[in-house]
Amino acid sequence: MNAATTENMSIHAAEAPLLEVKHIKKYFPVKDRALLAKREYVHAVDDVSFEVYPHETLGIVGESGCGKSTLLQTIMRIVPATEGEITFCGKDWLALSKDDLRKLRKEMQIVFQDPYSSLDPRMTIGEAIGEPFEIHTRLDSKEIKDRVLALLRCVGLGEEYYDRHPHEFSGGQRQRISIARAIALRPKLVLCDEPVSALDVSIQSQILNLLKDLQKQFGLTYIFISHALNVVKHVSDRVAVMYLGRIVETASVYEIYEHPRHPYTQALLSSIPVISDRGKTGRERIVLEGDLPNPKNPPTGCRFHTRCRYATPICAREEPELRTCENGTQVACHSPIKI
């Protein structure tokens, strides 16, 4: 077992989770084509459970359409959960009344994927970043402006931007503004919904480094979702892999990238270009056959068995549980293979 893995496991054993997600489901009804047709549902998130510990970054990866963004929106209560439990800061997050939710909402914030649509074009940057203070605090206008200017400096923007509008900024600058707004009230948890995927590659590393610097400075905890595997590796302490609405593997970033156990995780990681000393790719390229199954009618048994090269008859009959291996990795596979 890797030393970093052992250290992370011991730290987590001594800490209470900041966020606990238990058996969360989010089903979206499909509009009936006929009056008497059977109601169908898209199983966007289907029985997902995990924990997030203080000051860590949990990365969530998976193909487009696997339910990553819906999971974050359900946690944030942007969309209501169909079933399940969420405990945040020791409180039943889904059972909070509107007033109690408003009080605790400042402890959980989100950075959206698109920096162009996440800012109100009618508001100046000073107004956008200052709005959380107006809602959740009793600071006067001068104190709010001082804090907004300090936040602009924190995210690498000058004070001269205070009175400008979003259309005057580039995509990277807008995302810096969105980050400043998200951390304004010093939240305990920040949900990052693919925050760099809409940015140029040259800007992505700057935003990622900014997020890591802010995490150290303010003791933030992140859930970071992305389809870019190298990005997740750069920012995460642990990684959860999603497939068709479910988590199929969770482990430390070292174990996920060096010793993946689930066949889907192995296939994902094989797509990363890795050049060895001899000029060849360092990992066998695994090409998945077929398309992602229909989330309205997911396969029986293991949801990945229709595309898995190791599938056996039991995979089509029985759904594997998320089991913990000896190194702390959790994997939902009947015959996990360590590579």
Task: Give a quick set of tags describing it.
12 strands, 20% strand, alpha/beta, 339 residues
Q: CA-to-CA gap between the ends?
A: 14 Å
Sheet-strand content, in percent, reads: 15-25%
Characterize the biggest β-sheet: 8 strands, mixed
Structural class determined from secondary elements = alpha/beta
Shape: globular
Q: Provide the residue-averaged pLDDT.
A: 89
> What fraction, in percent, of the residue positions are helical?
25-40%
Helix run count: 11
Q: Which residues sit in consecutive blocks of at least 5 with pLDDT less than 50? A: none
Tally of DSSP β-strands: 12
Give the oligomeric state. single chain
What strand line-up does the widest sheet have?
6-7-8-3-9-10-12-11
Radius of gyration: 21 Å
